[in-house]
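Journal club side-thread
Mid-discussion, someone asked how the predicted structure for our own chain would compare to the paper's figures. Pasting it here so we can look after the session.
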Amino acid sequence: MESNFKVDKGDTKSKVDTYCYRRIVGRLLYLQATRPHVTYSANVLSQFVADPRQNHMDALHRVLRYIKATLRQGILLPRDGGSTLTAYCDSR
């Protein structure tokens, strides 16, 4: 999801299953511990758990397709510990 992507309330759109939407968003919030690049998307989509609409579910499916396409990316947390984390930043 682009950083300037706006998701409106979508009052005119049809409602979706609230339980399903909350469950997927909850898993997305849990996933952001090892995939920090989905944090923005998870936070934007979590704003609509009270009344999710079809446009919110479409945006959620878009994020899930991105995650499926980038399975090898993220932070690996091994069981035995002892890993070294190297981070890079491109500041402009």
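Post-session note: DSSP finds three helices and no strands in the chain.
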